Amino acid sequence: MAGAEQGLRQRPVGSNGNTNNLQVGRVVVPTAEGQKKDRELDKHVEYEFGGPWGVLAIMTGFPILMYYLWICLIFYDGALVHPTSVDDIQPFLWRMWEHIRVDASPNAYAWKVYTGLILYQLFLALVIPGYMQEGLPVPSLNYRTLMYKCNAISCIYVTMITAAVLHYTEVFRLTEIIDNFGHLMTVSMIYGVGVSFFMYFLTVATGNQIRMSGNFIYDVFMGACLNPRIGPVDLKMWLEVRIPWVIVFFMSVSGACKQYETYGYVTPNMAFMCLATWLYLNACGKGEECIPQTWDMFHEKWGFLVIFWNFAGVPFSYIYSVVYMASHDPSKYRFSTVTYVVLYSTLLTAYFIWDTSMSQKSRFKMQSQGIMTYRKTFPQLPWGTLKNPTFIQTAHGNRLLTDGWWRYSRKPNYVADWVMSLTWGLCQGTCSAIPYFYSVFFIAVLIHRCGRDFERCAIKYGKDWEKYCSIVKYKFIPGIY
Questions:
Q1: What is the C-alpha separation between 428 and 320, in angstroms, rounded?
Q2: What angle, 0 to 180 degrees and rounded to 10, lies between the N-to-C axes of helices 268-286 and 337-369?
Q3: What b-and-e string marks burial along 228-261, b requiring 16 or more CB atoms within 10 Å of the CB?
Q4: Which of 300, 219, 412 is nearest to 41 (CA)?
Q5: Cβ–Cβ contacts within 10 Å for residue 94, how many?
Q6: How far is the C-alpha of 437 from the C-alpha of 290, rounded, in Å?
Q7: How far apart are CA 292 and CA 111, in angstroms?
Q8: What is the pLDDT along the chain (481 residues), one digit of tens a residue?
Q9: Residue 374: closest CA among 388, 363, 387
Q10: Closest CA relative to residue 155, chosen from 176, 137, 133, 131
Q11: What is the pTM of this model?
Q12: DSSP SS3 for 137
């Protein structure tokens, strides 16, 4: 047990139903047993990620790794370079620093573009009308549910139209995004670090911290606040979709534009990445009402772990294949027609499973709360909503889904999500190992997250969880693991 424990701290609720300027829906109180388990889960009991020293290593090491992989892709033909001898260590480090100093400096242009994106996305989130979705009951708010404004799908396509106009009027050429990758990456890191520390100090100063360990650096990493908001906009949900996946998509489009300007055509490989990133971005928008039902919204705090990853980690480490293909001749990664068919088919199959499994789980939770509303956003895939699904009624008061994709695996969405990440590296073949970083890193994250999730569920549901595991035997891949 580490640090000073802070348990389930109840935040004051005003008579008008407004909790610290949060838009609240109604009170949904679980059973007495459920409340007891929630109090246990809303305490800091033990350190994760190796404790304070582990998170400090992540906070310093990951930005360095991002710079290193980018340098290898751009300046060393995608090879993982290293000092050639002991005597070369210092010159090697100076060479690395020179690449960063010259080609990844936080220049005025990068500040203007990245800050402009943040402000524009926040502006759209505030002014564009959206569907109001009720979330899960929050224990620290006396089991009140929060309302979430879901307008991402409209904001995304307004952003696409805006970008197209700026590109064709030559106010802002989309090719400039990939050309300024290093500069933009540095600015994104500054935002990630800056917002993380700012939110920590702001939350502590206003007395809204929750589930704290008592160790400064660890609490900055894990976060202090649970429900950060500006007006009707939930910042945690906003940042999860509007910044990282918008950048990932436009980075792919930028790579395609770069190829077209250079070669007069766009390769099937780059078109694949445009399709893959659009599918992901569009899914986050069309199914945004499902996000409030997830662990990220309900339990995960808003700290460096989430903030830095969404500002910098996702958009600048998931699309190394785009960076490689935009800077190398297409002859290096040209495939046969059969290979392209297999690649595209794998992506679309994995996407179907991922999309529908996420939809099944989230809509099941909404059905259980009696707040299910069917939104006709495109595309609505078959089998996304289960009719009369089987489930386990727990003593806590919640229900565990045992139907649809969830009868075969406890995390079918993770399996499909990882397969999609693998295809993002496969689209450039064996030209470089670096584009496979996403899938390698992602599987490590998923395994760790599953461990956290399953441990929490075992505490929360007790014997009901054991019963669930006896019915849904496999954690990931049915029949294998």
A1: 10
A2: 10
A3: bbeeebbbbbbbbbbbbbbbbbbbbbbbbbbbee
A4: 300
A5: 10
A6: 28
A7: 31
A8: 343 333 333 344 333 333 445 666 677 777 777 777 777 777 766 898 999 999 999 999 999 999 999 999 999 999 999 999 999 999 999 999 999 999 999 999 999 999 999 999 999 999 999 999 888 888 878 888 899 999 999 999 999 999 999 999 999 999 999 999 999 999 999 999 999 999 999 999 999 999 899 999 999 999 999 999 998 899 999 999 999 999 999 999 999 999 999 999 999 999 999 999 999 999 999 999 889 888 788 888 999 999 999 999 999 999 999 999 999 999 999 999 999 999 999 999 999 999 999 999 988 988 888 877 778 888 889 998 999 999 999 998 889 999 999 999 999 999 999 999 999 999 999 999 999 999 999 999 898 888 888 988 998 899 999 999 999 999 988 888 8
A9: 363
A10: 131
A11: 0.91
A12: strand
Residue 392 β-bridge partners: 400
**Beta carbons within 8 Å of 313's beta carbon, 6+ residues apart:** 62, 66, 192, 244
Question: Which residues are CB-neighbours of 147 under 8 A, at least 6 positions away?
Answer: 23, 24, 25, 132, 133, 134, 135, 232
8 Å CB contact between 318 and 273: no
3 state DSSP class of 102: helix
Adjacent-strand bridge partners of 235:
none
Q: Check: CB of residue 416 under 8 Å from CB of residue 353.
A: yes
Q: Is 427 left (phi over 0), alpha (psi -120 to 50) or beta?
A: alpha
The three-state secondary structure class of 309 is helix
What is the DSSP annotation of 237-257?
HHHHHTTHHHHHHHHHHHHHH
Placement of tokens 């246990």 in the chain: 40
> Any bridge partners for residue 282, and if so which?
none
Backbone phi, psi, residue 166, to 5°:
-65, -35
CA–CA separation, 416 and 339 (whole Å): 20
Asked whether 356 and 380 are in contact (CB, 8 A), the reply is no
Which token pair is 8? 């389930």
Q: Tokens 């903030």 sit at which residue?
A: 307
| Neighbour count for residue 284 (Cβ, 10 Å) | 22
Which strand (E) or helix (H) includes residue 400?
A: strand 399-401
Reported as type and span, the H/E element at residue 134 is strand 131-138
Residues 182, 184, 190, 193, CA torsion sign: negative
CA distances from 47 to 53, 209, 300 (A): 10, 17, 15
